[in-house]
Amino acid sequence: MPETVRDDLTVGGWKSLVFEPFRTGVTIHWISRFEGERPGTALLKYEAGAAVPRHRHPGLETILVLDGSQSDEDGRYFAGTFVVNAPGSEHSVWSEDGCVVLIQWDRPVEILEE
């Protein structure tokens, strides 16, 4: 039996989930929180124009854009795009039109500038 199940995420199943504040304009629904060596997995929902400041990834980060688009310094990623950010990589993230992403971090990010 799986530890957790979230149904139909790629077709809007996230719309019925409860999100909590994460950063200004960004909310989070935790699927699994960091615990020991266990990675954190969550859904992030960005309002149009929301951003996360420049940060570093001490571990691997993977993102699947489920709705809308998310951008960083390397491009704009639309629904269906899978992004991998290597350990040690840095970027800032924003969404012009709002988005929902499924994200997994090996380790919590380090915010570099507010």
UniProtKB/TrEMBL annotation:
<protein>
    <submittedName>
        <fullName>Anti-sigma factor ChrR (Cupin superfamily)</fullName>
    </submittedName>
</protein>
<dbReference type="Pfam" id="PF12973">
    <property type="entry name" value="Cupin_7"/>
</dbReference>
<dbReference type="InterPro" id="IPR014710">
    <property type="entry name" value="RmlC-like_jellyroll"/>
</dbReference>
<dbReference type="InterPro" id="IPR025979">
    <property type="entry name" value="ChrR-like_cupin_dom"/>
</dbReference>
<feature type="domain" description="ChrR-like cupin">
    <location>
        <begin position="17"/>
        <end position="103"/>
    </location>
</feature>
<dbReference type="InterPro" id="IPR011051">
    <property type="entry name" value="RmlC_Cupin_sf"/>
</dbReference>
